[in-house]
Amino acid sequence: MPATIKTIMEPKSIAVIGATDRIGSVGRAVVTNIIEGGFTGVLYPVNPRARSVVANRAYPTIKDIPDDVDMAVVIVPAPMVVDVVEQAAEKGASGVVVITAGFKEVGGEGVKLENELKAVVKERGIRLIGPNCLGIINTAPGFSMNASFAQAMPAPGNIGFISQSGAMCTAVLDLAMGRNIGFSKFISFGNKADVSEIDLLEYLGQDPDTDVILMYLEDITDGRKFMDVARKITWKYKKPMLAIKSGRSEEGAKAVSSHTGSLAGSDASYDAIFQQSGIQRVEDVNEMFHYATAFSQMPLPRGNRIAIVTNAGGPGIMTTDAAVRHGLKLAEFGERTKRILGKNLPPTANINNPVDVIGDADYQRYEAALRAVVDDGDVDGAIVVLTPQKMTDVLETAQMVPRVLEGVVKPVLCSFMGIVDVSVGVRYLEENNIPNYSFPEEAVRALKSMVHFSKDVEPNENIRREYVHYDVDSKAVNAIIKEKLKDVDRVTLPQSEANEILKIYGFPVLQNRVATSPEEVKPIMDELGTPVVMKIISRDIVHKFDAGGVMLNIESLEEAQAAYDQILLNAKAFKEDAVIDGVLVEQMAEKGVEIIIGSHNDPSFGPMCMFGLGGTFVEAIGDVSFRLAPMWESSAVEMIGSTKASTILGGLRGKPPSDIDAIKDCLLRLSQLVTDHPEIVEMDINPLIVYPKGCKVADSRITLAKREDADDEEDESGEDPGVAVS
């Protein structure tokens, strides 16, 4: 944990540069918040034209303060910020929070100012949060600081929140206050000229007062470093992280030469980063706080078996439907539980799951039912649903929940449905740290989120969260790439040439040969046998099927020679000026399940691997998943399981299951290939045909491009750190 960030978050003394008594000013708001927020350190307002600010002595400059200053909050006009930060560094401050706006977010001169600011903090060895931020808040036990211009100080809690947007912070604070949600740390980091989301994650990951981390992100500085830090938080510190990433609809540039490129919008990279880091991505602030409330107030479930206790049949069915839809299971009660329920509930009640205690239920009936189900060893968590009837005592029912949960290490979420009639009970639940949701579907989704995280972090010998390294001749591939890029900046290799690279990396390629005339087909067929498939070889024709450039199931020499001529005619008709290098004659693969694997070079994060259902309709179906390379073995397994293709691969209508291990092996080889050779900017293996045992590469294409940062040195090893696999 960088000491300077700790100093920013836990200073003993604060200078507010730009403090003022003017009503409605940011400078006054920050000083007032620091005082009213309970800061027990020393506060130094800085204003050259004031003797005091909010009844605290003011100083003309930070250099005039007689004592040491740990941290400075800067609220002066943008052109003055660099000089003021220089002064703070000279005074010995190890951290600054620059609230001032007018930097890179406005472009032009603002970009220049921000670059100057970056240079100063780097040269001076201090850390900076901002510029263009709301400020920071710390409510840790024994320490309280509100160095922001937020409307109010949040309640203490165990949730850490970081945001690039200051406006989002103010809305989140207001929402949290309305729901009685507290925070351990609340940090607006704005333009992140220095301290980034990665630094703050590292700090919160080790913060003993933070159990849950929430993020609003607009971009990520370094995807791989972000993953390294987040993975440690997930699997070492076991802290759940929830993220809103804005910009889902914004697509990156699409490469028409690749299925993978056309499917890999910029947002797919962020999904991959989150999935590989154990971070759950949420759609909006409501969803974020629904999940965060459950994580921060309840123990994690051991499994996905839940019980439902309700006083109304309709909501009970709704809850059941939502649970099944989200992958939760209704627990099967043991005989002892059923006897207890039968003894304490009326004959008209349902003692199976969901338990219906009937509309006239009082708190005692609810309490008996809830005690019985949470005591059942086959129940991992419960949802209590209440609809306000005339005879329902809402407050007493709410009061029984924490009473039942004493000593229980299982999550119980409530859904007291409505707003007005249930308000007194909801308030009691919130005050006693019992999560409540207006509708049961919301409670189900929150519990599903907890189950997902619990499953993700539990020890599992079958899940290897480590890199796999294959012993391959990467130098041979380096030589091929160097030769192909000798005279061009970018080139797409046809299957015949792409297969050379794939073969070196251990992919199961089919035997093939290139024919440049009908006469050359005979010796090739004599060598390969029949049946064969024939494909056009042309860098000018990307999708061969569209051009009539593929012919299947060719059984004889006569068919093959006729196919050769027809393929060339079709190609010329499709693109008259296409340069044709010949026809690939290849062993015809047996039928199996067709999938696609590929890679696309994300401009921000580097190579990103793809998996999905293959064939000619892959772009229309769009059932694909992405992960950044290099991948852990567990990432390869998860990207297969996260698609609908996994259902088909599992075997349908009596067909045997496909070889998932063979797919995983190809994905990990792909991950190593594109990591070892960043010149591979796009790549498709489509289809990769999978069988009950093994798989075969039926078609492939690789696009190479010179690297902007390339030099004459070659990687001696071509290896990434990992585990050797024979």
Structural class: alpha/beta
Shape type:
flat
- Classify the oligomer: single chain
CATH third-level topology of the largest domain: Rossmann fold
Low-confidence stretches: 250-265, 712-726
CATH homologous superfamily assignment of the largest domain: NAD(P)-binding Rossmann-like Domain
Your description of this structure?
It is built from 24 helices and 32 strands. The protein is an alpha/beta fold and 726 residues long. The strands form seven sheets. It has a seven-stranded mixed sheet, with helices on both faces. Strands 21, 26, 27, 28, 29, 30 and 31 form a seven-stranded antiparallel sheet that branches. Strands 2-1-5-6-7 form a five-stranded parallel sheet, with helices on both faces. Helix 7 links the parallel strand 12 and strand 13. Helix 13 packs parallel to helix 14. The longest helix is centred in the middle third of the chain and has 18 residues. The relative contact order is 0.07. The C terminus is likely disordered.
Outline the secondary-structure elements:
Elements: H1 3-9, E1 13-17, H2 26-36, E2 42-46, E3 52-53, E4 56-57, E5 71-74, H3 78-91, E6 95-98, H4 109-124, E7 127-129, E8 135-138, E9 145-148, E10 156-163, H5 166-178, E11 183-188, H6 197-206, E12 212-217, H7 223-235, E13 241-245, H8 259-263, H9 266-277, E14 280-281, H10 285-297, E15 305-310, H11 313-325, E16 329-330, H12 335-344, E17 355-356, H13 363-374, E18 381-386, H14 394-404, E19 412-416, H15 423-431, H16 440-457, E20 468-470, H17 474-484, E21 490-493, H18 495-504, E22 512-515, H19 521-528, E23 532-537, E24 550-554, H20 557-574, E25 582-587, E26 593-602, E27 606-613, H21 618-621, E28 624-628, H22 633-641, H23 645-649, H24 660-676, E29 680-690, E30 695-697, E31 700-705, E32 723-725
Parallel strand pairs: 1-2, 1-5, 5-6, 6-7, 10-11, 10-12, 12-13, 13-14, 15-16, 15-17, 15-18, 18-19, 20-32
Antiparallel strand pairs: 3-4, 8-9, 8-11, 21-31, 22-25, 23-24, 23-25, 26-27, 26-29, 27-28, 29-30, 29-31
Helix pairs in contact: 3-4, 6-7, 7-9, 10-16, 11-16, 12-13, 13-14, 14-15, 22-24
